[in-house]
Amino acid sequence: MPRIIYKSAPELDEYVWWTTVSDGPVSGVLTRDQMHAYLLKETSMTADEVEERLQRTDEAGSSWESRTPMWDTEHYARMHRFAGLIAASFVGWHGTVCGHG
Q1: Residues 7, 13: Cα–Cα separation, whole Å
Q2: Does the model's pTM come out above 0.85?
Q3: Beta 24-25 vs 15-19: how paired, if at all?
Q4: What would the 3-class secondary structure string for 36-64 be?
């Protein structure tokens, strides 16, 4: 099952593990450290593989092999819309749920 890590915004420490099969979240919103631990536990990836994916995500907004930044693309916007309740973590989560807005 193809899965991707998405990061909510370059300046935020918010990550979600995403499935491309149903185009939705597999994990809740996690910090980078939490995502690292989650992927080590829930996948067969090594620590180096997890770190490499997280590095791509930090650089481009997702762990896709392409290092083209996704922050302002239609695909990224569509991913936000399909997230349901998790969408709050990507679009306004930091301000509305955490009270930082």
Answers
A1: 8
A2: no
A3: antiparallel
A4: HHHHHHHCCCCHHHHHHHHHHHHHHCECC
88-99 residue pLDDT tens: 444 444 444 444
Per-residue burial over 2-27, b = 16 or more CB atoms within 10 Å of its CB, e = otherwise: ebbbbbbeeeebbbbbbeeeeeebbb
> With contact defined as beta carbons under 8 Å apart, do 7 and 58 qualify?
yes
Place of tokens 């991707």: 4
Token pair in block for residue 71: 């922050």
Say if CB 46 and CB 52 are below 8 A apart: no
Name 72's bridge partners.
Answer: none
